[in-house]
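Input for the complex:
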Amino acid sequence: AQKVTQAQTEISVVEKEDVTLDCVYETRDTTYYLFWYKQPPSGELVFLIRRNSFDEQNEISGRYSWNFQKSTSSFNFTITASQVVDSAVYFCALSEVTSGSARQLTFGSGTQLTVLP
Amino acid sequence: DAGVIQSPRHEVTEMGQEVTLRCKPISGHDYLFWYRQTMMRGLELLIYFNNNVPIDDSGMPEDRFSAKMPNASFSTLKIQPSEPRDSAVYFCASSFNEGTEAFFGQGTRLTVV
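Predicted:
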């Protein structure tokens, strides 16, 4: 069965610090997708990134970067020079592909990030 | 596109009443998902549709919950009768294809008193 673990329940940093949010997943499938979502205090879920299991290339988007390592089943998310507006709950999610059909998202429990001014 | 639209945003109802949550997915998306978010259980999938057909409803808590998708642009999640433990935020999401990212609505915060 698929499982996503976000061991960090809460993280607090001071503005301009770098912060890494950890995500470890479990799956028996060789083909799967990994996602990160952001949930700000307003409550909506905002899509940040999708990665497929065959693409281990790291990705950078502005202050955001993602490190995908199949060897350790991890898909970590780093925010560089954090800002107060980055304060939110961040969810990692997994979607397995079985028989050519991707299943629904399985979410981790989320990490509450607080960036202090 | 306006994104996934859910209504109402907030709903307060008395125990035993029927509650209907509504969702309009993004046009052209073939998949529609209903999720529930609570402090205790986090985000959990209730049911999802592909081309208006329910594919997996194993997450629906019990027979009090039902979901329909009469056409490609509308879905409902109904709880009858509602109970206090149904209080949660209910999200609707849609995706273009299998494996692509799901886009979420703003959620409906349900409170059953």
